[in-house]
Amino acid sequence: MDKLIDKLSLYDFFGYIIPGFLGTWALNVFFVETLQVNFIFKLDVGFINSVLFVAISYYIGVLLHELSELLQEHFFKRIWKGLPSERFLVDSDNKYSTEFKASLKKMIESKFGLIVGNDNKKSQEAFNLIYSGLQGAGKDEKAQLFNSLYGMYRNFFAGTVMCLLVFLIKGFVLVCRENWQSLFESFLYAFLFLLATLTLMRRLRRFGERLADYVIRDYYNYYLEHKSE
């Protein structure tokens, strides 16, 4: 039970709280600096506000998680032609050799009774079974770490898009107010967050591929070790 709580805490910290800090800061910029209205609290006052900041960051991190799920489903899956966990067995994906794919399909059919064809849906079903098998065997520590990091980068991407939009809106408001002095700073932040968005897209794909690879290879090695049992 303690081990499970540790893993949940790891994902909560990387996946929700850290990206939530970014989202909370973006909302503070939007409400206080752009709309010039009071935010829920001030970021730099007292212990109680510090605790409240962490709690709200967690909540905003959850919202960013939901947003990142939508981005993954309707954006990343299209530009990547499927998630790494959906592509690893299809013929068009060159991550694994044809021979290794054949071995994986044989293992999946033998272990789970699932016949995998050449489509993303079946590959995802196979991956889910493999991941569950790895968790059941207690061999998923590395996968849990990369799952947490993947969640962090995915939610950071959503938070970065949020920051980009906030500073673009702030720049437009400054133009309307003819506040030229702060305009450069706002668009500079927007440019930096645009670069961060492009960088996070690359890292997100990399960590997604590593997560899928660790899950598949670790379970395959476990399967070979216990095949005769």
UniProtKB/TrEMBL annotation:
Regions crossing the membrane: 13-32, 39-60, 156-175, 187-204
Domain of life: Bacteria
Keywords: Membrane, Transmembrane, Transmembrane helix
Organism annotation: Formimonas warabiya
Protein name per the record: Uncharacterized protein
